[in-house]
Specification:
Layout (H helix, E strand, L loop, with lengths): L1 H28 L1 H12 E6 L6 E2 L5 E13 L1 H6 L5 H15 L3 H10 L7 E7 L1 H11 L3 E7 L5 E7 L4 E10 L7 H4 L2 E2 L2 E2 L4 H5 L1 H5 L3 E6 L12 E4 L6 E4 L3 H17 L4 E7 L6 E9 L6 E3 L4 H4 L9 H10 L8 E4 L2 E4 L2 E4 L7 E4 H6 L3 H11 L1 H10 L26 H8 L8 H12 L3 E2 L5 E5 L5 E3 L6 E2 L3 H16 L14 E8 L21 E9 L6 E10 L5 H20 L66 E5 L3 E5 L10 E3 L3
Parallel strand pairs: 2-12
Antiparallel strand pairs: 1-10, 2-3, 3-4, 3-7, 5-6, 8-9, 10-11, 12-21, 13-14, 13-26, 14-15, 16-19, 17-18, 20-23, 21-22, 24-25, 24-29, 25-26, 27-28
């Protein structure tokens, strides 16, 4: 019995010693491991954001840059642990922090007081200068305090902390646009989560601009606060590449001013202008303006409408009809037609703008005077299939590939749906719809001797090491022969010499161009028999003037399109003055020399037959980068008198606008890309 008692007692003794043995073992063997695990629990790896690349214009002038900013917040839990709990103590802390970061202490006090005591991050500001934020933490780190916090069920841990430990800093960057809202719809804006769906170059080149995150290890104290000065960069952030555009900041700025004033003078609702080099496809300025609903003043457009919106632009499409017929050998510039003032095609009647008796007109005259009936007669010889193929070849119905996510491909109904009236409507530009950039590119075919050159907005990227990497260009493709191009060029020249655009020729810089005027479908059907008549009882128009110069050696091409112009409007009267002023702007900024003689092959891209009279002038002359004075290059539009109202960025387009096929039948035009705006019924001019 006694032996059994001894055995039981021994077992209890061993059990009693086990906790002590474990404690001794921990103290002797596991001290280093536990300390290491404790440090690991305090250390945390966080992202170190890179610097976003800069977007430049063609001359290296900044259009979009990233400025470093710091988000400043307060950890209420740490603040309480530091003994800052009463209203007076919080006020004193707010005074100290406000003085350090140069912000209103009353506002800081209110934000902290409104937060819960359990909030680990109370955001105060997101735009503090990084140097100011860092200096503020150093200032607040001078006052040390002892904090005792629980570290287990019964144990506590004591550490030293400062007021700086209650301040949380987060690095961020702010996208800044030195040119303000100029070109902003093309560049795009940045939100909290990066560029939005339609944010232009910022989105298309987001990967290149973004760079690569780095990593930094931070240590947290017992209360969870980041320990100041304990940061350790484990991987450096790689900055993003820069992007250089083909745009010129000066030309963009002044084009917006000229367009705004000209659109206001025309009493139009909105306007678009495209300026560029036909030989390279480089876009030098792409402007858009619209009327502010509240003030009635012109403001910069809220969408990249030159790329995103398609219009049935009327007579400017006659270029394709005549080009295709000459290319097919069916007509020549001097082929004569007996042209009445109207023509019946099945159940539809098409007419010229002004009544006239049957008139003998050459193909050149048909283009110069913008005869709807004459153009339809040419198209009837050409046929549906060839006209459709020509429209496709000139780039209509397809995206140009320009560097924007908002580009529309326009509207080109499939050929198997075409009727005979649709052929007539397509010939005069009231069956299909195109974006202004598509029209600009199509007219460049004539300027380039029959070759299609894709438009370009981005010239190159520049990596962090400074290496310039040109963006690959789309190879030019033939559309028509140089001979056909030259013949069409003479017809476009006749438009300005003797036709609908004759008042807008430039002495020394011969222009080849085409005008266009089309009715717009009423947004609300108020007349059962006439879908073009608006609620005010009038017609509203889209008016266009597009062309290039000098005709013997094209260096600049310009497209101007105005929307919702009033009764009496025409492409020549409303868009023509803007084209003229933009031409003068381009001549000055590009240093284009006047033409002394005319080349033997107009529009075929021939070299000039004389040496430029202005030393140093020519296509390779550097463009000026700084915005010019407001009153420079002002002619008919008086651009120095217009103030452009700022617009909200990236407003989306919604809904759809109907358009018509032919002169009496309305057809719905669906939206493509960011939207399609319809116009109808070519009135010519």
């Amino acid at each position: 019995m006694s032996g059994r008692l001894w055995m039981v007692g021994g077992i209890f003794a061993v059990l009693a010693l086990l906790p002590l043995w474990k404690l001794v073992g921990v103290q002797l063997r596991d001290t280093g491991g536990l300390a290491e695990r404790g440090i690991e629990q305090r250390m945390r790896e966080v992202d170190l954001p890179p610097e976003r690349g800069t977007i430049y214009d063609r001359n290296g002038t900044e259009l979009a840059i990233s400025m470093p900013r710091t988000v400043v917040g307060v950890d209420r839990v740490v603040l309480t642990a530091l003994g800052v709990t009463t209203a007076g103590q919080i006020r004193d802390f707010a005074n100290a922090l406000g003085a350090a970061i140069e912000r209103d202490p009353v506002e800081i006090d209110q934000k902290i007081a409104a937060a819960k005591e359990s909030d680990r991050f109370v955001k105060l500001y997101d735009d503090v200068d990084p140097d100011v934020a860092t200096a503020a933490r150093r200032t607040l780190a001078k006052e040390k305090r002892t904090i005792t916090q629980p570290s287990g069920a019964t144990a506590t841990e004591t550490t030293t902390a400062t007021l700086a430990d209650a301040v949380a800093l987060q690095a961020r960057s702010e996208r800044v646009h030195p040119a303000g809202e100029s070109a902003l719809r093309i560049i795009g804006t940045m939100g909290a989560d990066g560029p939005g769906p339609g944010a232009g170059v910022e989105r298309v080149y987001n990967k290149a601009l973004s760079g690569t995150n780095g990593k930094v290890m931070v240590e947290r104290g017992v209360s969870g606060q980041t320990i100041t000065g304990a940061e350790n960069v484990t991987r450096k952030a790689e900055p993003g590449s820069d992007v250089q555009l083909t745009l010129d900041r000066t030309m963009q700025y002044e084009a917006e001013r000229i367009l705004a004033n000209g659109t206001a003078n025309a009493r139009a609702g909105s306007g678009i202008a495209v300026i560029g080099r036909p030989t390279t496809g480089e876009l030098l300025a792409v402007a858009g303006v619209e009327k502010d609903d509240e003030s009635g003043a012109m403001k910069l457009a809220t969408s990249p409408s030159a790329f995103s919106d398609a219009y049935q632009a009327g007579s400017v499409f006659k270029l394709v009809t005549v080009s295709a017929a000459i290319e097919a050998g069916l007509v020549g510039p001097d082929t004569v037609f007996s042209v009445p003032d109207h023509i019946q095609v099945k159940d539809r009647t098409f007419s010229d703008h002004d009544p006239h008796p049957v008139e003998a007109m050459s193909a050149r005259q048909i283009v110069a005077e913008s005869s709807n009936v004459g153009t339809i007669m040419i198209a009837q010889q050409l046929g549906k299939q060839k006209l459709y193929e020509a429209l496709k070849s000139f780039g209509f119905g397809s995206k140009t590939g320009i560097e924007t996510p908002s580009e529309s491909k326009g509207v080109l109904p499939p050929i198997d749906k075409w009727t005979d009236p649709d052929l007539a409507a397509s010939a005069i530009g009231t069956h299909q719809a195109a974006t202004p950039i598509q029209l600009w590119s199509a007219y460049n075919v004539i300027a380039n001797g029959g070759r299609y050159v894709a438009p370009r907005l981005v010239d190159a990227t520049i990596d962090p090491a400074g290496n310039r990497l040109p963006v690959a260009e789309t190879p030019p493709r033939p559309v028509i022969s140089p001979s056909t191009s030259a013949q069409v060029s003479t017809a476009l020249r006749a438009v300005v010499e003797e036709g609908t655009g004759k008042q807008w020729d430039l002495p020394g810089f011969p222009v080849a161009a085409k005008t266009g005027t089309s009715r717009m479908v009423s947004p609300q059907r108020v007349d059962k028999k006439d879908g073009y008549r608006w609620a005010d009882g009038n017609y509203h128009y889209v008016t266009t003037f597009t062309g290039f110069f000098p005709v013997d050696n094209p260096q600049v091409s310009i497209t101007v399109m105005l929307q919702d112009t009033p009764v009496g409007s025409s492409g020549s009267l409303t868009a023509g003055p803007i084209f003229s002023d933009l031409s003068r702007l381009a001549i000055r900024e590009l240093g284009i020399a006047p033409t002394a003689t005319t080349a033997s092959t107009p529009g075929a891209g021939a070299a000039p037959t004389t040496v430029p009279t202005t030393p140093g002038a020519g296509a390779d002359r550097p463009l000026r980068a700084a915005p010019a004075t407001a009153g420079a290059a002002v002619a008919a539009t008086g651009a120095d008198q217009t103030t452009i109202v700022s617009a909200s960025p990236n407003r989306g387009l919604t809904g759809s606008t109907p358009a018509a096929s032919g002169s009496t039948t309305t057809t719905t035009v669906p939206r493509n890309g960011s939207g399609t705006v319809g116009s109808v019924a070519s009135d010519d001019g």
